[in-house]
Design brief:
single chain; about 400 residues; alpha/beta; nine-stranded mixed beta sheet; 11 helices; 17 strands; globular
Length: about 400
């Protein structure tokens, strides 16, 4: 495939991209490459950008593609957990059609890799993991999907959940294990973390822990996680989702935790949702902490918002960090590309010869305009194959 007349973020003149065997084979000035047999795609001066990573979402919970469902949960974390679990039976969740539709929508918006946290508990068992895995297999040529076995309602407080998590690992259903609020929800940080890290060490999996805990409580949990990563030799294999406690505490403690996160190569994953404080990207990255981003819930029983578009999430991340210049906005975009990939242990998408052709075209003059305007993606490629045009998935479920 020859993609003609596109622009790269760091070049002013248009170039042509030659894609072969799923890789970017050549990048040359427009008009230089002329393989007669190539399928040609007209870029029309659009900006070519690398595929984005949704490093934190919950596709098993989504109501995407259904009639509008008014939000009914109370304000507390426990209210939303309970509301989501009640909604499973009422709305038949997880729904194959909704999961398929949302993943297709995410791909059409330029996301080429997603990590989704799928509920595991005695009520639902491993059904959600198996359903999402089946849909992910159907869409394997459209988007890469990595699942986390996630004890949303608690691990210690729900007898039988730990055994289900281990069963999921034994069956090879997941390569990542989740945890949630070891102190605030579970009331036993040591047992919760020891169980998760013990399973991860035994089965060689990654870890991604939801940490909504605030203030000194959340900061203490972060220090416990850092200690276990270093003790078990799991550097680079652990992420903390949300983790806003790092900015609740004083400067000295925040810097100490940042140093520990950097040493243990623990990533922080932010969703920049609602009125939750936003992580200061520049400050944390300056301390050596990797930051990724995700949509979190998309139109589900936790909240009515979301569209699966990581450019939209990047907009919120940049806006709430006070970013105005193109250079600053490009940093937020890098969080949604490189930061997420590093957190998942993957190579970040790049537009360069030899890299996988995971990219999208958008009518914008720069990354700054792309994030600000968020126009439909003109074309999306996954491993060199066209998976969406003009914001619309090519495949229908």
């Amino acid at each position: 495939m020859l993609i003609e007349r596109v622009r790269l973020a760091h070049k002013s003149r248009p170039v042509d991209l030659l894609v072969q065997d799923g890789l970017i084979a050549q990048i040359q000035p427009a008009g230089v490459i002329d393989p007669a047999a190539a399928v040609r795609e007209e870029g029309a001066g659009a900006l070519a950008l690398p595929g984005m990573v949704d490093a934190h979402c919950h596709v098993d919970k989504t109501l995407w593609g259904r009639s509008w469902v008014p939000h009914s949960a109370g304000p507390a974390l426990g209210d939303r957990i309970a509301n989501g679990e009640r909604g499973r039976a009422e709305f038949g969740l997880p729904s194959r059609d909704s999961v398929y539709a949302l993943l297709g929508q995410m791909a059409a918006a330029g996301t080429t890799l997603a990590r989704t946290h799928t509920d595991v508990d005695p009520e639902i068992g491993l059904r959600g993991l198996k359903l999402v895995a089946a849909v992910a297999e159907e869409l394997a040529d459209v988007i890469d999907v990595e699942q986390v076995a996630f004890p949303q309602g608690g691990l210690l407080t729900r007898p039988g959940t730990a055994e289900l998590l281990e069963s999921a690992l034994q069956q090879g259903l997941v390569g990542c294990l989740g945890g949630i609020d070891p102190a605030a929800l579970e009331r036993d940080s040591v047992r919760h973390l020891d169980l998760i890290f013990g399973l991860a060490k035994t089965y060689g999996t990654r870890i991604d822990i939801h940490l909504h805990e605030r203030g000194t409580l959340g900061a203490h949990t972060m220090e416990l996680i850092i200690e276990r990563v270093l003790r078990h030799g799991l550097e680079g294999r652990v992420a903390i989702s949300h983790g806003v406690a790092i900015i609740d505490v004083d400067q000295a403690q925040s810097e100490r935790i940042s140093q520990g996160l950097a040493e243990a190569r623990i990533s922080l994953l932010t969703a920049t949702v609602y009125n939750t404080p936003v992580l200061p990207i520049a400050e944390l990255r300056g301390r050596g902490v990797n930051i990724g981003a995700g949509n979190d819930g998309v139109r589900d029983h936790w909240g009515p918002y979301g569209n699966g578009d990581m450019l939209d999430r990047t907009f919120h991340l940049a806006y709430r960090n006070g970013y105005r210049t193109d250079e600053q906005i490009a940093v937020a975009f890098d969080v949604a590309v490189s930061g997420g990939a590093v957190a998942l242990g993957r190579e970040p998408a790049r537009i360069e010869p030899g890299a996988p052709a995971d990219l999208f075209l958008i009518d914008a003059a720069s990354i700054g305009e792309a994030v600000s305007a968020r126009t439909p993606r003109r074309l999306v490629l996954k491993r060199g194959k066209v998976v969406a045009r003009h914001g619309n998935p090519l495949r229908k479920g």
